[in-house]
Write a sequence for this structure.
């Protein structure tokens, strides 16, 4: 069994991959940003060993900050991703690179296929799309996996912030016009295990929990699961919330590239969230 090297291993996904792979008996090395900066070629050369399976979870994920920090977002998400792929190619390592549905503009009335044309509407999405291209250029057989709205239950960013605001007793506005699939990190890790083990995996794929929700639907489930009154939640529109970066409204990622290879769809987002609480 190959060694697994996880970059960005102190982040939401990287930390769960490291823990769950280790619990599953794999030889895994998880390196956080201080131990391995993916924009540093020398550090990558030292860190990646021949025939590793590298899972690149390192990313600049601050969607709003990226609007005024474009150079840094591109340095990590585009140049850094390309550099990881370059060293994987040199070391004959396999690469699984994480990307996002934010490469799309969110206007499609039907789910996005992997063949759909990307058109990001914010800097984060642009930098991630550039990263996909850089990875593909450096390592044509890298596995690129797009996902959306990751969570590991009530302690992670969106649920935790929502529960904190609810517990303060004030009305909490939540958008009804952003639609996607809240995705369980643990189910995504299982999906990545299946992808890596597949004899003929899709090179570009979408992996999200099954089913779709508005942010408001997701907030209602978070609140009810915590035993809170949902009357505090106030539906609003994205245009009512002033953020630096615009958000694509409807990003539903089709799993047809996934299921076409016999890979199992991820469980439904509602069941996954309840299981994570
Ligand atoms: N979370 C989501 O809802 C979501 C949705 C779609 C796709 N994704 C993708 O999934 C992947 C993992 O996301 P996540 O939610 O786990 O993000 P995260 O929690 O923000 O973790 C990303 C990690 O990358 C690290 N990092 C930043 N710059 C780095 C660099 N130059 N070198 C090495 N590490 C660096 C960060 O460390 P510091 O904190 O020290 O900077 C952080 O620990 C990313 O590719 C992201 O684009 C996430």
């Amino acid at each position: 069994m190959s060694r697994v090297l996880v970059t960005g291993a102190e982040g939401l996904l990287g930390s769960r991959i490291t823990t769950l792979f280790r619990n599953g008996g794999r030889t895994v090395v998880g390196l956080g940003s201080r131990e391995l900066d993916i924009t540093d070629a020398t550090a990558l050369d030292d860190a990646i060993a021949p025939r590793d399976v590298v899972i690149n979870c390192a990313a600049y994920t601050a969607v709003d900050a990226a609007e005024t920090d474009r150079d840094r977002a591109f340095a990590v998400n585009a140049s850094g991703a390309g550099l990881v792929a370059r060293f994987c190619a040199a070391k004959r390592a396999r690469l699984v690179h994480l990307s996002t549905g934010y490469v799309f503009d969110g206007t499609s009335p039907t789910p996005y296929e992997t063949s759909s044309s990307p058109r990001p509407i914010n800097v984060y999405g642009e930098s991630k799309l550039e990263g996909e291209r850089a990875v593909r250029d450096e390592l044509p057989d890298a596995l690129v996996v797009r996902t959306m709205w990751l969570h590991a239950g009530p302690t992670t960013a969106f649920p935790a912030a929502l529960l904190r605001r609810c517990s303060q007793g004030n009305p909490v506005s939540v958008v009804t016009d952003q639609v996607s699939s809240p995705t369980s990190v643990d189910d995504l890790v299982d999906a990545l295990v299946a992808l890596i083990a597949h004899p003929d995996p899709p090179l570009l794929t979408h992996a999200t929990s099954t089913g779709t929700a508005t942010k408001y639907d997701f907030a209602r489930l978070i609140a009810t699961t915590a035993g809170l009154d949902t009357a505090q939640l106030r539906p609003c529109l994205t245009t009512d919330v002033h953020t630096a970066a615009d958000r694509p409204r409807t990003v539903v990622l089709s799993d047809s590239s996934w299921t076409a290879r016999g890979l199992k769809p991820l469980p439904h987002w509602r069941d996954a969230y309840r299981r994570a609480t």
